[in-house]
Design goal:
Bound molecules: iron/sulfur cluster
Shape: globular
CATH superfamily: Aldolase class I
Strand order of the largest sheet: 3-1-2-4-5-6-7-8-9
Number of helices: 5
Largest sheet: 9 strands, mixed
CATH architecture: Alpha-Beta Barrel
Structural class: alpha/beta
CATH topology: TIM Barrel
Radius of gyration: 16 Å
Length: 192
């Protein structure tokens, strides 16, 4: 069973698929408890559904793009759910802190947002997304040797932009142009 907090249709505001209309499936629970977490819903109530039941709910929306998020989607093995979405022709992206990448390996696109920058994965995902503020130890990012895209995303408030952190990230990307800025577009648009 999948522990589902919410299913909603919105615009992807982060990473490679920024601007893409997607159905978001938020799963319950996380292995971490980050002080700046902007998705506290993952700690609250949820409903349990089979993969088939979730796919039926998703079929009502017009897009073919799905984002599975949390919390931490790799707490459980959801590869069968991802395969059920593939059968219906969906492109499936997953957002993860890298807890158990094997549990989400069937996804088409995996955004890895590491929280322990001293123990980074190097394979098993599509792109990095570092969530950065003015106090972040950015040397770890700058020393990273990879061909994967490295997104830098400001630590924002839950429902609005943190200008100080955003300005810091803009200057960081301008100084190190191999980095890419991810701004959480949905917080500028005022959508979920
Ligand atoms: S890993 Fe992500 S969802 Fe989990 S507590 Fe940290 S910011 Fe929140």
């Amino acid at each position: 069973m999948l522990r589902v907090v919410e299913i909603f249709y919105s615009i992807q505001g982060e990473g490679s698929f920024s601007g893409c209309p997607c159905v978001f499936v938020r799963l319950h629970g996380c292995n971490l408890d980050c002080s700046w977490c902007d998705e506290p819903l993952h700690k609250g109530s949820y409903e349990s559904f089979t993969s088939k039941e979730v796919v039926e709910k998703i079929l009502k929306f017009p897009t073919k793009y799905i984002v599975i998020t949390g919390g931490e989607p790799s707490l459980n093995n959801i590869n069968d759910f991802i395969d059920a979405l593939h059968v219906e022709g969906y492109h499936v992206a997953v957002e993860t802190n890298g807890y158990r990448l094997a549990n989400i390996k069937n996804a088409d696109h995996i955004t890895y947002s590491p929280k322990d920058w001293d123990a980074l994965h190097v394979e098993g995902f599509s792109e990095y997304k570092f969530v950065v503020g003015v106090d972040s130890k950015i040397e770890k990012i700058l020393n990273l040797k990879t061909k994967k895209t490295i997104y830098i995303q400001p630590i924002n408030f839950k429902d609005r932009v943190n200008k100080k952190n955003t300005d810091f990230c803009i200057e960081l990307v301008k100084k190190y142009p191999h980095l890419r800025l991810s701004v959480q577009l949905h917080k500028y648009l005022g959508v979920e």
